[in-house]
Write a structure and sequence with these properties.
The complex is a heterodimer of chains A (about 160) and B (about 325). By secondary structure, chain A is mostly helical. Chain A folds into 2 domains: about 1-90, Orthogonal Bundle (Rna Polymerase Sigma Factor, Chain: A), CATH 1.10.1740; about 95-165, Arc Repressor Mutant, subunit A (Orthogonal Bundle). Chain A is built from 9 helices and no strands. The model of chain A is unreliable at about 70-90 (pLDDT under 50). Classes of the chains: A mainly alpha (about 160), B alpha+beta (about 325). Chains A and B meet through helix 1, helix 2, helix 3, helix 4 and helix 5 of A and helix 1 and strand 1 of B.
Chain lengths: ~160, ~325
């Protein structure tokens, strides 16, 4: 299958961003890479239409998050049934700050973690998050509120310890 | 939470796979998509499968990505599978135990799902493209009961081995022994009148009157969390949220006689909801205002009959365990 230059360029720019977003969401680098590769694989099946989208990266984000929500939890089964995408999965070298942030995010449940990552890491607005996840804006606000209250003391404590 | 931006540092460490290998994989999947559906359904529904496979082949060459949000309405249809067919489907996926942790000993649930085509956000309104079933067990899935789902957004554990699921008929209680009870809609009630386990219903946070088989929506937008599985006893907290402010916070628990009770705690408005301290002792509830300064714990040791407020010392995690020496904590003052 030939890959268009546009798709190739987008892949090299967007793939790392997508993996980090997914890693922050699920906490597992392997699952994050699987989901990102699944999204790109799906895009490649229809690449001419894909590249003509107004915001192909947003489409990839939505597809990958859907994969995490609908498929990633089922990965034990999925991996037996599907072709495994080959590729490097070297572990990230995390600094102390990264470890602290990931540990704090791990305190959140999955729905809360999704909205926090999309808001604070990807800079999406409440409305954009609601559209991406298919939930009400009020639900996004509620989850952000609860997440902030959980994260604040954890991240603040880390800062105090650093000081 | 600007700290989260530091995770952008990691983008430089991501190693991208070879794009051509992804493209080859996409090509193989494209060719195999229809065959996979044909092989995936039991022989007993062979006639229906032939129809479905035809539809999928057609969609496979015509369906293309659309942007997030409302898109064109695909006209494809898929056969409605039974719960057992969904579980037996070779493409079926099953949720992890962490998705639906139990609140009673040995009770657990699995969600089985099978995608018959793309299952992206753009196609989520296509009927029966993604089909799901709930399996409830109380013996680690040695036995259990299966229920086909048609509204996957409404699955809540209620209490014991009872779950509330949403279907086209309305919302029902189902259990591990195959019992199904259709819930009637009751009157909406304020937070202070909760008298049953809390679930998320189509109308928002609601409690189930297990005796009457009624669902009562809680007035206001709310959240709830339970502490049952970790505490060998059913209790949790509920909070009402307006905009991004938590306005009311309550503790909810089950009495020894099986009835439920609630106490709206004397906590003012807060940026966040309450946390809970596990005690491991039936009858003991400990709810923490962890954004208060100093933090306060509202504690009852007699199934909610009496309550006391204590200041939580530094070093005690708001969401951890209730230490044995908590009676030595200094008394706290009610903010109200």
């Amino acid at each position: 299958m030939d890959v268009s230059t546009d798709v190739a360029e987008l892949f090299h720019v967007a793939y790392p961003r997508l993996v980090v977003l997914l890693y922050a969401t699920c906490g597992d680098q392997g699952d994050a890479e699987d989901a990102a590769q699944e999204a790109f694989t799906k895009a490649l099946r229809h690449q001419r239409k894909f590249i003509s989208l107004d915001n192909p990266e947003a489409w990839l984000r939505t597809v990958a998050l859907n994969y995490l929500r609908n498929g990633w939890r089922h990965h034990d089964v999925v991996r037996r049934l599907r072709d495994k995408v080959p590729g490097p999965q070297d572990a990230f070298e995390l600094g102390p700050d990264h470890v602290a942030i990931m540990a704090a995010l791990a305190e959140l449940d999955r729905p809360q973690r999704e909205v926090v990552v999309l808001h604070y890491l990807v800079d999406l607005s409440v409305a954009e998050i609601a559209a991406t996840l298919g939930i009400a804006q009020g639900t996004v606000k509620s989850r952000l509120s609860r997440s902030r209250s959980r994260l604040a003391p954890l991240l603040t404590a880390e800062e105090r310890e650093d000081a | 939470m600007p700290e989260l931006r530091q995770l952008h540092d990691l983008t430089g460490q991501v190693r991208t796979p070879e794009l051509n290998r992804l493209a080859d994989l996409a090509h193989r999947r494209r060719r195999r998509a229809a065959a996979g559906i044909v092989a995936g359904v039991a022989a007993s529904v062979a006639l229906v499968v032939v129809v479905a496979a035809g539809v999928v082949r057609e969609r496979d060459t015509s369906s293309e990505p659309v942007g997030p949000g409302p898109g064109p309405s695909p006209t494809a249809t898929f056969p409605a599978l039974s719960a057992e067919q969904i579980r037996q489907h070779p493409d079926a996926m099953v949720s992890s135990d962490a998705d639906f942790p139990a609140t009673a000993s040995g009770v657990a649930a699995h969600i089985w799902s099978v995608c018959l085509d793309e299952c992206t956000r753009a196609t989520e309104h296509v009927p029966d493209e993604l089909q799901t079933a709930l399996e409830v067990s109380r013996d680690n899935f040695a036995t259990g009961s299966l229920y086909a789902l048609d509204l996957t957004g409404n699955i809540s554990h209620a209490v014991d081995d009872w779950y509330v699921i949403g279907t086209s008929d309305g919302q029902s209680l189902v259990d591990s022994r195959g019992h199904r009870r259709l819930l009637q809609s009751g009157a909406s009630v304020p937070l202070s009148d909760i008298a049953g386990p809390l679930v998320y219903s189509s109308g928002g946070l609601a409690y189930v009157d297990m005796q009457a088989g009624q669902l009562h929506v809680i007035e206001g937008e709310g959240d709830w969390e339970w502490q049952g599985a970790a505490d060998t006893w059913f209790w949790g907290t509920a909070a009402l949220v307006e905009d991004t402010t938590v306005t009311r916070q309550a503790a909810l628990w089950r009495r020894p006689d099986g009835t439920f009770a609630v106490k709206v705690l004397p906590i003012g408005e807060s940026r966040g909801g309450p946390r809970m301290l596990r005690s491991g002792t039936p009858g003991t509830l400990a709810v923490v205002e962890h954004l208060a300064e100093p933090r306060r714990a509202h504690i009852s040791t007699d199934y909610g009959t009496t309550w006391q407020i204590r200041e939580v010392p530094d070093g005690v995690d708001s969401g951890g365990s209730l230490p044995a020496d908590w009676p030595t904590w200094p008394p706290g003052r009610s903010p109200e």
